Each structure stands twice: as structure tokens, then as C-alpha cells.
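During the reporting period, our protein records have gained a C-alpha cell line. A sample record is set out beneath this paragraph:
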Amino acid sequence: MRLFVRRDLDGFFGLFVDNLVQLLLIVTLCSFLCGMTGDDRHFLYGRILPGAAMSIVVGNLFYAWQAHRLARRTGRSDITALPYGINTPSLLVYVFFVMVPVYAETKSAEQAWRMGLVACLGSGVIEFCGAFVAEWVRKNTPRAALLSTLAGIAIGFISMTFALQIWSTPLIAMIPMAVVLITYFSGTRFPLGLPGGLVAIILGTILAWVLPSAWTGREMAAAQISAAWTQSGWAWPIWSGGALFDTLAHDLGGCAKYLSVIIPMGLFNVVGSLQNIESAEAAGDAFDTRASLATNGAGTILAALFGSCFPTTIYIGHPGWKGLGARAGYSTLNGLVITLMCLSGSVALVQSVVPIEAGIPIVLWIGIVITAQAFQATPREQAPAVALGLFPAIAAWGATVTYGAFMAAATPGAQGVATVQSLLEGDAHAAVSGFLVHGLIVLERGYIFTCMVIAAMAAFLIGRRFYTAACWALVGAVVTLIGLCHSYQLSGNSVDYFLAFSPAHEGAKTYQAFDIAIGYALIALVFAAVGFYTRGAEPDHPRMTH
């Protein structure tokens, strides 16, 4: 397989846009919420971004090498590397539930950064250890259960999110969307063999600069480029293990407070990466599970040791990149370009030249392909199981929108109910636009596990494997008792996990989902009873476990 093919450019632009969004989030959130401005700006540009560069380049180069290795072993030239980058859910959760509380308590950007390193290290250790049991989990989980979770995430957090951006800035984004649809739906080639992704980026950028900002809603000006240029500056990765281990040694009690955040996110990252590896195999590329996940965990540990507070992960979307025609070169190119941006501090400079709307249609297409794959790569009779598994992820997207709407309403002088907490304390069964808010939060908490459990139950019921379906119901009961699913504690508009062994936040509204755990146990009894009643009638379906 060649080091680089023409369609790697399309894959690069899509993955680059995704990674760029994460970098912009880091810069924005750490600056405004964690005090990393002025004299403390070096924590962001001198520590976090260079540390992220270390993890990103190492991971991308490994997964590119892994694709070449698989190509040599199989004699194929169409292997696509696993996509890799900063983990968006972990980024948001660690900022809002680890770094921001520490900064609010200490008013120290350094303390917020140090606790962020602890969270990142914890996540990496969990991911690395999970690599040694993940293959067993994958072999004993129906493909419908693994892929339906990804489909739900793709619908809400990828396709819907970017679709809203496209229709919000139509004069910039809709022409690039047309180019992407023409290229990847119809297979039409552009003159000179130009990649569709490159054409979309170029046209979107031209439109953003040529059309008046009053039309586009996006102001592009030379002054922005000049201001962004002044913010750039070279910074090499710096060993931060000393600060990390010093924090663990002298503030172990403070670190323990955030285990209720670190443990669930670490486990979610393991399961999410596992699902993406299954997605890649369904698309035709069977990578080694243990090596893939171990590298993922090692990359996150490396990030923490060199100053980044944010875990990396195997990205959702492998079948999309494969559909683009990307191979291994897109991963290599992405790692090198993102690393250059992080080390040079040029994140804002790139954003000032290329509008994000020009590239998001590519990522929208990735979400579409992932959703389609969940139905296409599973046995036809298991389609209802895939559909059932979509609901928790869709609830997670709806809950995210709800939290954001309440946060926008919780302003000084706002009239009526201003927070989710005050709404539910007034009425535990309160609804917004007909949707139960408590039910939305309950279904959203731990949705990756919930998606797998209910989709697996459905898949095995379709195959009349009642005892196995009962075992999955018991898994649901156990993870619910622990607090990885359904339980929550709510402070204002901030929703956190409520593990069985963790104390509640002061003044928080709490819900320990013991009743749901009992419900899962009763479901298991019903399934087992039906299995006993119909004993001898369970057919063997080898594909049910793969």
C-alpha cells in the first residue's frame, strides 16, 4: 500500500476539521473558564497544546503504520487507518466537572491545570488496562449493540450538530455541502482529479471572504489574521510528570473527589473505542483490538505526562473515511499538521483564514455513513435492535440541548424557572415541550452502556436466546447499581455522575437509580422464565455474538 494516495486529501480535510474543532474548544474553554489568560496563558499555549501534539502525532503515526502492517499481512491495498484525535466528551466533562470547579475554588489556573493532568492520566490508565479485556467483550457482544451506539452518536452529536451549522450559515456552507454530496453520493469526479473535500474547502473559504458579513453572518477580516498572528509562537512539549505526581502525592484527597468523573469517562472511552474497532471490522478492516486500545491508552498517558489535560481516542467514522477513499496517508498528514499547529500556536490563525463552515459538510457525511453502516453491517433481522439502541444516544443529544438552553436562560433578571434543578425540585415529573426532563437525564446518563445493554437484549431476543438476553439485563442492573448508568446529581444546570461510593455535591438534587436496577433484574427474571418455558427451542446463531 502506498504511503499517500490522492483521496487521502479528502480524509485529511475531514479529520483535520474535527481535530481543529477540539483545539478551538480547548483554547476557548481554558481561556474563559479556567483563567488561562494574561500571565497564565503559558499553561494553554506552552503546556496543554504541545502536550496534545505529542499524543496526537504518536497515535496518528501508529495507526497509519498499523494500516500498512495489515495491508502487508492481507495483501490488500485498500486498508484505511483508524481515525484518532482528542476525545470531545472527555474534553467537555474534564473542563466543566474537574478544571472549572478547581479554578472556582482556588482561583489558580495552575491548580486547574494540575487536576486536569490527574484526570487525563486516570483516563489513560483505565483505557490501557481495558485493552486486555476488550477483545473478549467484543466477541461476546452482538454487532448490533456495538454499532447502534455509534449510530446514535452520529445522528445527534455529528450529523445533527453540523447540519444545524450548515443551515445557520447557508451562504458559506451549502455550496460545500453540495460538492460533498456530489462527490460521495454520485461518485462524480472534478476536473483535474481534484478531491471533493479540497474543492469544498476552497469554495467555502472564497464565499466567506467575498460575500458581505451581513449576508453570511460570519465576519472575515485581515485584522483577525493580524491579531491571530500575534498570538502564535513556537513552544516545544515540556515534561510535566513532576507537577502531575506532586499533585497525586500531596493532594490525594482532592484527587479522590473527582473519581466519580474520571472512572466513568475512562470506561466510556474504552467502550467507545471498542465500538469503533468493531465498526472498522464491519467496513472490512480487522485491526488487533488489544494493540489498538493499548496505544489509545498510552497516547492519553503521554498527553498527561507532557502537559495536556485531555484524553485522546479512536474516533468514530472509520467507514466514512474508507468511503472517501482515504488509506493511511490521511492519518499521517493529520498528525503532522495538527502537531505543527499546536507547537506553533497557530490554531487561531488557521481559524481566521478558513471558516469552519467550509469543512463541516465532510464531517456531516461521515455521520451519515456511520448511521447507515449500523443497519447495513448487521443481520437484517437485527435492524429493530439497532433502532432500539439509538434512543439513549438521541436522549443524550436532547439533554445537551436542554442544558444549554437553561444555561442561556439562567441570567441575571431572568423571569421564571432558570435552572434544571429548580424545575425538577418544583415537579419531579416536569416536562419541557412534552418531554420529561428527569427521564431525559436518566436515559442520558451512561448512555453508551445503556445503548449496548438494550440493543444486546433485543438482538438476543430476536435470536430466541433468552438466557443470554437475561445475562445482559443483569449487566444493566450491575452498572446501574454502581452508578455508571441512570444515576445523577444536579447542581443548577450542571449534571454529574452519582456513583454508589461517591458523596453528593453540597446542595445538589440527587437520584440514585435503584428502582431502575431492580427493573433490569426483573427483566432478567422474565427473560429467564421464558427461556425455561421454551427450553430446547433456542437456535444457535453464530453471528449473534459478532
Summary: The chain is about 70% helix and 5% strand. The chain has a mean pLDDT of 87.
